[in-house]
Description:
One of its GO terms (cellular component) is plasma membrane. Helix content is 42%, strand content 25%. The protein has helices spanning 17-54, 110-124; strands at residues 61-64, 69-76, 80-86, 89-94, 98-103. It is elongated and about 90 Å long. It has a domain at 56-103: SH3 type barrels, CATH 2.30.30. It has a 5-stranded antiparallel beta sheet, covered by helices on one side.
Amino acid sequence: MLISTAYAQAAGGAGSPNELFATLFPLVLIFAVFYFLIIRPQSKKMKQQKAMIEAIRRGDKVVTAGGVIGTVAKVKDGGEVQLDIAENVRITVIQSTIASVVSKTEPADKSANDDKDKKDKKSKD
């Protein structure tokens, strides 16, 4: 006959701890590489993007994901932003579609506003 007898290898049961470590070490190493090279930088970038979008205010010059460059005219509730893209042309975009902020406006100095109000009151009197 052409069929030979096959013998099963002896199974060692659970195996030694060294075999278990040698089996799991490559999987742990691959997960660590994925975490430090892919998962961690991506989550860090997402946090920065979210903080940038939440910090948008009137007067900021922004670029949308579609490539439209405009100046923020109004930040509405519900995640909408009105952009001035040309003279007398205003569009509304969803806040999350803003890709980057080109230039930020400086917040108004409160003391400068108080001084201005005082001067206006004196000129009116």
